[in-house]
């Protein structure tokens, strides 16, 4: 009997232990999106700091001559002589070519002869006119006789002289048009005529450009145009001419958009003493400007949903959603103009799984070192 009682007690103990082990203890409560202690999710945070954003734009443009001119013949004629070629350096007023002009030269000589005759007649009539004035004063001739024979002849001679002078000037002008001269200092960039060919006035015979300075023409949009200021210096790269970066000066900013391009032309002047920069070359304009000090967060910390820009701040293990107003950005950081305070911790990863009020488990928020914008992050 005693053995049966011991055996019964032993079985009861075994059953009691088995029943207790089969029960599962309740798991600790977790916030949505958070993992248990054994597999806790890691979120990276960055402390909001102050700094500057280096704004940068790279724009494409083409080189143009600062000053250029197309030389057109004002009168038709056969080319008698050429004095320059492509690449020739010329000065303002230098002769470029002459046209055959025998008939015009003869016209000038005839006009000169007519003028000489008119001058003689004028001199004689002037002398007679002055003598007639003396005769009128002494009453040797009547007033009518003076006006008819003295003053009248003088006036006709004076008119003939002016006409002869005008005719000569016209003949000389037509003759001078057969000599084409450069209107500016520069380099001949195009010659479209040869000796013996007939030159007309329908197209340019020469193109001349002043290449001591060139300009880069870039077209910018409405968000970019007001970033440029006359006199501002920018970096320019012309890889076809040099591997060195050049410094250009903004000289002209369009006040209205080009109606065809829907863009604002901006001109940037470059020195070109060695004339390595040629009109038509491709150029890159690099515009840079450092902003005033502002709050900075990494680009990956900022999300836009439904047209609203947000960041997520971690406060004592609780996620807080903040609407922010952002400003300029660079490759790493975004300027935050409002919505954050210095020193706050913003979350930079797993943003799609975050929402306002989300509680992260204590295990998720422990350990690690802080990360500043642009540096390596903390796992918290």
Automatic annotation (TrEMBL):
Pfam families (alphabetical): Beta-barrel_RND_2, BSH_CzcB, YknX_C
Bias kind Basic and acidic residues: ranges: 369-380
Domain (CzcB-like barrel-sandwich hybrid): residue spans on this chain: 68-210
Domain of life of the source: Bacteria
UniProt-annotated stretches for the region Disordered: 357-380
Similarity annotation: Belongs to the membrane fusion protein (MFP) (TC 8.A.1) family.
PANTHER family xref list: MULTIDRUG RESISTANCE PROTEIN MDTA
Name of the featured protein: Efflux transporter, RND family, MFP subunit
Organism of derivation: Desulforamulus hydrothermalis Lam5 = DSM 18033
